[in-house]
Amino acid sequence: MEERKSVKPHSIVWEDRKKGSATGVTDVLSFDENSIVLETEQGRLTVKGKDLHIDKLMLEQGEVEMEGCMDSLTYSGSNPAKKGTIMKRLFR
Hints:
The chain is mainly β. Helices cover 5% and strands 58% of the residues.
């Protein structure tokens, strides 16, 4: 029997480039005052800016709250939610 992984919804809310939150976060890969790198249900998300820090981290719920002056949000990598076995991709 095939095991199904629960995919959490992913969203980003950023207010006035000063405070933000993300859902669907599976891991925090790195962070410092100039960048925060998160693994999300939709791929790797990099937040760049100044004086960035993580206020709240709740990985069990897939939520992160951040503060600082945000300059950019960038996704990289593939969308893990759309991955499947080669057989699934061949026989769509």
